[in-house]
């Protein structure tokens, strides 16, 4: 059975984890974009 006292205690921890995951994904996307921009050259 779901206990709401436990849920209210764990929600901030889950929020911090989700924000951390999104920040890491954003950093990886930014790094790939910058590396692609720096080393792609002018291949038209």
Overall mean pLDDT stands at 90
Beta-strand portion reads under 5%
Number of beta strands: 0
Oligomer: single chain
Overall form: rod-shaped
Alpha-carbon distance between the termini?
A: 61 Å
Helix content: over 70%
Encode the helix/strand succession as letters: H
Q: Which radius of gyration do the C-alpha atoms yield?
A: 19 Å
- Count every helix, treating DSSP H or I runs of 4 or more residues as helices: 1
Low-confidence residue ranges: none
Tally of separate domains: 1
Largest sheet descriptor: none
- Structural class category: mainly alpha
Structure notes:
- The protein has one domain.
- The longest helix is centred in the middle third of the chain and has 36 residues.
- The mean pLDDT is 90.
- With 44 residues, it is mainly alpha-helical.
- 82% of the residues lie in helices and 0% in strands.
Chart the SSEs and their pairings.
Elements: H1 4-39
In short:
The chain is an all-alpha fold. Helices cover about 80% and strands about 0% of the residues. It has one domain (about 1-44).
Keywords:
44 residues; mainly alpha
